[in-house]
Write a structure and sequence with these properties.
InterPro entries: Acyl_CoA_acyltransferase, GNAT_dom, GNAT_N_AcTrfase_prd. This protein has 2 domains: about 190 residues, Gcn5-related N-acetyltransferase (GNAT) (Aminopeptidase, 3-Layer(aba) Sandwich), CATH 3.40.630.30; about 80 residues, no CATH class. Helices cover about 35% and strands about 25% of the residues.
Amino acid sequence: MTRLESPITSAQEQAAAAANAAAVNVRTVTDLDELAGVEDLYERIWHSEPNAPIGTEMLRALSKAGNYVAGAYVADTMVGACVGFFAPPSDRTLHSHIAGVLPQAARRGVGYALKLHQRAWALERGIGVIEWTFDPLIARNAYFNLVKLGGRPTEYLPNFYGGMRDRINTGDDTDRLLLCWDLEDPGVSEACSMQRQPTYAAELRHRDDVAVALGRGPAGEPVIGSTDAPTLLIAVPPDVEALRGTDPELASVWRHEVRKVLGELLNGGARARAFTRDGWYVLDAVHPNQSRGEGHS
């Protein structure tokens, strides 16, 4: 962003660049038939029973009330959608409730284009923060949220939604991390300019100021380590969604160990500042001689 360029103009340009790179058109959705298309798209992604994650009637009400409902299109075909609603303080915060991309459009930047469009939309309305939740065990989502978008987890929420009857979450607790996306933070602007370079745990593990708080054992099991260092590493499974199908018992062990280690550290004041390309959270630890901050800074 140049000195004379406003945060809004910069966000709009970054959103346009992301949509162009993904070869999609991202726009808000208000038409009833298109809102029904959002419901149908979510059902095709989550295969939830007995209903889609969010229905057309609720989408209609959210859109009419001025909340965020947007779709990503290839020609006239919707391939992704994102829905958010205002949260306290309602004039400054948006809660991004659900976002999804069809499998056939995955890994081409559609989700990234949706989030950058949402950021620009929010800044245009004077909204400075977007929050959402995500499963801390899904490595690709953690990398996307912390690195590609520059967000920061602020709270660990055990079994937040209770039991969910869909193809993705069935049979597992719905632990979530609450993520804060400070839209005007320089790190967020850098991430949205696609300037972030990945880091790897192998580059960090042997430093004197780094400890492995939760690692991976030889059989892929979680291994409790040490928290006696300024910087801590916490591993997650490379692909927990596949693991739920092949070894649900081991997936459950990972769930409870990550909840114990990451949850206690985050809720005790540690801050997750990165996620490595090979699947590790990087935390700044809190020690007795350090004060604990409050809020989402």
